[in-house]
Amino acid sequence: MIFGKNTVVKASWEITYDADGKGWRQAVAHTTLVKNTPYLIMANEFGPLTAATTAGSGGMIGVPDKAGVSGAVVRLQVAGRVTAMITPSLSMAVGHALTIASDVVADDGNDYLGKADEFAIAITVSTTSTTQDVMLTAHPIIAV
Q1: pLDDT at residue 102 is higher than 90
Q2: Residue 72 contacts residue 20 (beta carbons within 8 Å)
């Protein structure tokens, strides 16, 4: 990533892929980030910036693979398998879509169809679990 001498952009807009097929984006952390917790990645004057998953916002959902401190450039996974993504207590069926509802991750109740608010697919069955095994799709969500 190369930026000009006077640039204020701190993180790249591109998605990079690793050997496992996982997609990653960099963003400036808006607060201390918790490993395996989903955050919204949105645009601001510094480039990509993390934010809480709040209603009415759009962007891409990313999950950090390690904790990050406020103001630091962090790496968030946006595509591929995530094991034990932190969620509210959910009971998921394989193939169901995950969305953001009332500011938290929720089960759409239907199979993933690529709708405007869907960002991941459940890949294991869970019963009242606060972690989910999911496949992130790198699908930008229009509004959450």
Answers
A1: no
A2: no
